[in-house]
Design brief:
two-stranded antiparallel ribbon; 193 residues; 8 helices; alpha/beta; 3-stranded parallel sheet
Amino acid sequence: MRRRETSPSVVPVLGLPLFARDIPAAVDLVVQGCLQATSESPRCISATGAHGLVHAQEDPAFRELLESFYLNLPDGKPAVWIGRWKGAHAMQRCYGPDFFAAVMEATASLPVRHFFCGGKEGVADRLREAVAEKFGNRNVVGTHCPPFRPLTDDEFAALGAEIDAVGAHVVWIGISTPKQERFAADLARHTQA
């Protein structure tokens, strides 16, 4: 796979392009991308920790998948240390839950719609309630709890149609690495979010 678009500032860590900035810069990219509709196709983003980096070394297909993503956030400190050692002095840890919270807060009063995908039945709905309570963000327009097995192409197409029908800009997937990255790439073929 090739990268869909030119990515923002990155630094190679174990051969993978990791975002060389901080959470506020990543949030700004997401928000501006949603508000300006600057992309013709979905932009996949991964919070890539040590587990993902190591898995990418052992699994060439997973490595290629991460290389195709618009943004790989450095989810762990060791990746940041390597990035800084390579000259990316503005690089900071972009811990997935902190990034999520920052995006939820930043988009609470903006016309940016979110869709939550993952967890057991009811988990995504509880997260929607928590986001509304904690951040005042009532822009979560849908949730989906996928089965604990790979989805068929028809199931991905149906989920993509559901996401597009509610006008989601951002789809959050929480099913653990490396499954969530593969899920995101498969889903991206079926949605404009």
